Amino acid sequence: MDGTPRGHDVERPAGRVQALPDERLLVLEGDVDLSAVETFDRSTSDDLAWVRSIDVSGVSFVDTQGLGLLLRVAAPRGRDAPTDRPALLGASPQVQQLLEMLGVDALFEMRAVPGDDGAAADELRPPA
Fold it and tell me: Which SUPFAM superfamilies match (predicted)?
């Protein structure tokens, strides 16, 4: 073996979920999986009603636990106040497609990350 990483040897970035209550923002980065969500859950209360935006621009992978976290933020608003959807910032086409396939994309308002050049905003905007 020459030490060159193979497809199965490449390490993916560890996931992280960070709460920024003063900014009413939840930041998800790397692989948002069971480990990342459990770590976050141990450090915060279950009530995420304060979250208004979720930055997913740094997400490389999301599993059902990560999706569950997104739904914990959005679902109550979807039932009680459909116009009060949390903003999903910087969602990749893959994340958007996953949400669409599951039929939960309408629970979120897709937005570009603030400071993007505008091209990303057009890419993230749902079709009219």
Answer: SpoIIaa-like
